[in-house]
Automatic annotation (TrEMBL):
<feature type="domain" description="Integrase catalytic">
    <location>
        <begin position="15"/>
        <end position="147"/>
    </location>
</feature>
<protein>
    <recommendedName>
        <fullName>Integrase catalytic domain-containing protein</fullName>
    </recommendedName>
</protein>
<dbReference type="InterPro" id="IPR036397">
    <property type="entry name" value="RNaseH_sf"/>
</dbReference>
<dbReference type="GO" id="GO:0003676">
    <property type="term" value="F:nucleic acid binding"/>
</dbReference>
<dbReference type="InterPro" id="IPR012337">
    <property type="entry name" value="RNaseH-like_sf"/>
</dbReference>
<dbReference type="GO" id="GO:0015074">
    <property type="term" value="P:DNA integration"/>
</dbReference>
<dbReference type="InterPro" id="IPR001584">
    <property type="entry name" value="Integrase_cat-core"/>
</dbReference>
Length: 147
């Protein structure tokens, strides 16, 4: 515990991830599901959050369950409107289907840092939605998403 020993002691360096660089709109789309089962309303239990990595634009959809066909329906609407992304990045959920001509990247299970952009945005969405519910004195969070 002396000063000399402390100055010679090496400190472990944190691992820094390699930054993701996007060069165009819908080059990389990160998708995640937010569990809203604790305050489910009108049969909706989840929020699908899709976020473009380049523009930071978000799409939010209320889902009754996290089954693949519900997720695919909303992803297909994004793809038909704006075109498919080159890379679809998600957590390790099985609800994200294999899409032809797409590179699908799955993060490690229970490791939200692998897609930090959408995970950080999830916290912002939940905070904003909570404020909307409080201001409007409502429990209909799906309406707060604009549905």
């Amino acid at each position: 515990m002396c000063d000399v020993c402390q100055t010679r002691r090496s400190f472990p360096k944190g691992t820094s991830g390699k930054p993701i660089i996007s060069i165009d709109f819908l080059n990389r789309l990160q998708v995640d599901l937010i569990d809203m089962r604790s305050i489910k309303h009108d049969g909706f239990n989840f929020i699908m959050h899709a976020k473009d990595h380049f523009t930071k634009f978000s799409w939010l959809f209320a889902l009754p369950s996290k089954e693949a066909h519900h997720v695919a329906l909303h992803l297909r609407n994004i793809f038909y409107t704006f075109g498919p992304p080159k890379i679809l990045q998600s957590d390790y959920g099985k609800e994200f289907l294999n899409w032809p001509d797409l590179i699908i990247i799955n993060g490690r299970p229970r490791h939200p840092q692998s897609q930090g952009l959408v995970e950080r945005a999830n916290a912002v969405v939940q905070k904003m939605l909570g404020k909307w519910l409080e201001t409007n004195k409502s429990l209909d969070w799906a309406q707060g998403l604009g549905m």
